[in-house]
Amino acid sequence: MSKISKLFKGSSGGSGSSSSSKHHRSKGGPSPQEAIHRLRETEEMLTKKQDYLEKKIEQEIATARKHGTKNKRAALQALKRKKRLEQQLTQIDGTLSTIEFQREALENSHTNTEVLKNMGFAAKAMKKVHENMDVDKIDDLMQDITEQQDVAREISEAISGPFGEQFDEDELLAELEELEQEDLEENMKSMGGLPSVPSSKLPSSQPSHRTKSKKRAEDDDDMHMLTSWAT
User: Fold this and answer.
1) Distance, CA of 168 to CA of 16 (rounded, Å)
2) Which residues contact 74 (CB under 8 A, 6 or more apart)?
3) By the 8 A CB rule, do 61 and 83 touch?
4) Which one, of 16, 10, 17, lies nearest residue 2 by Cα?
5) Which residues, including other chains, have CB under 8 Å from residue 63's CB and lie 6 or more apart?
């Protein structure tokens, strides 16, 4: 009796642990991925059910047409079955809409949860990076960089500036102009100077004989015209 009682106790204890594990799983709840997967499976099942009902409705319509007025009872029974199938189809449409809405809401919630989780992870990483940074030290560092840039600029200006004696550019241009004038005078002397202007008056050009004859002919024409007007 003692062995049998121990055996039942062990089996009851095992069943208790199994029920406790199931209770623990139900308390934790399914993961979002598992719930979404279940909803998709339900959608697929209801979609197949829709296809089946639509085919059955077509068959019942064909049966009602087949009997028609010849067998009204069979035709009416087919139409009644069609109505019931249509009601089921309408119910499935509503259920699919509800499941689709629930799945989309769950997917959005899961996406938002992952986004927030990653944003929190990034915030922690950024905080860790900034732990060893001091704003005052950064300001001092930037000021040192600015000062060194100014020093480098002054050194560059000093190196690139003119070195040695500096001369007045206007004075050098005046001296160059004098040298050019001297060269011009030397060239003129070597060529014997400028040609002299003649002192005697140049003879004026006389009109040619042909021009005089033409002038005289024009005057004769004018006198002839005046005489003809007077008469």
Assistant:
1) 111
2) 63, 67
3) no
4) 10
5) 74, 75, 78
Instruction: Give Rg (Cα) of the chain.
Output: 60
Structure tokens at 11: 């089996």
Largest CA-CA distance found in the chain, in angstroms, rounded: 185
Q: How far is CA 113 from CA 78, 89, 118, 123, in A?
A: 52, 36, 9, 15
Write out pLDDT tens, residues 26-78: 456 888 889 999 999 999 999 999 999 999 999 999 989 888 878 888 889 98
For 187, other C-beta atoms within 10 Å of its C-beta total: 9
Distance between CA atoms of residues 45 and 137, nearest Å: 65
Are 55 and 81 spatial neighbours (Cβ–Cβ below 8 Å)? no
Cα dihedral across residues 36, 38, 44, 46: positive or negative? negative
Token code pair at residue 168: 């007045």
pTM of the model: 0.43
Task: Give residue for tokens 């499935």.
Answer: 92
The neighbour count for residue 85, using CB atoms within 10 Å, is 19
State how far the Cα of 55 lies from the Cα of 50, in Å rounded to an integer.
Answer: 9
